[in-house]
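A brief tutorial aside. Many learners find it easier to grasp structure tokens once they have seen a single protein encoded end to end. The record that follows does exactly this for YtkA-like protein. Read the sequence first, then the structure, and try to relate runs of similar tokens to stretches of the chain.
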Amino acid sequence: MTVRGRWAIALSTLAVVAALALLFWPRPSVPVDVAGQAGPHQVRLLIETPAVGLQDLTVDVPGDVERLVVAPTMVEMGHASPPVTATPEAAGRFRAPGVEFFMPGRWDVTVTVHGSGGTDEVVLPVLIAPRGR
């Protein structure tokens, strides 16, 4: 192989490595802020750092709410994490600590609102990044 051929291979390899590094370099996760309607309840789900691992979810639901449960599922993969009952933090604001997202990708978080008028639910899509992103 000629010197010119070696340089061409070296530069091509370097370009591929640089492209892969840019593609997979850790970036900060963009917070999740999604909303939907569960019967008469307007539901807003917030996740500060939507990455693989245990996450604390904040759910805003104004009105008469006796109990609120969040249950994440990854429909495409057939996975689900255990449901977590949220605790009230303030009027209309609930916190669901330690919700498990064990792999990156699209998750559907079902928020079930139990109130004096019955039980309603909404499914909110979230995108979970790999750990450290």
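Self-check: The longest strand covers residues 105-115. If you spotted this yourself, you are ready for the next section.
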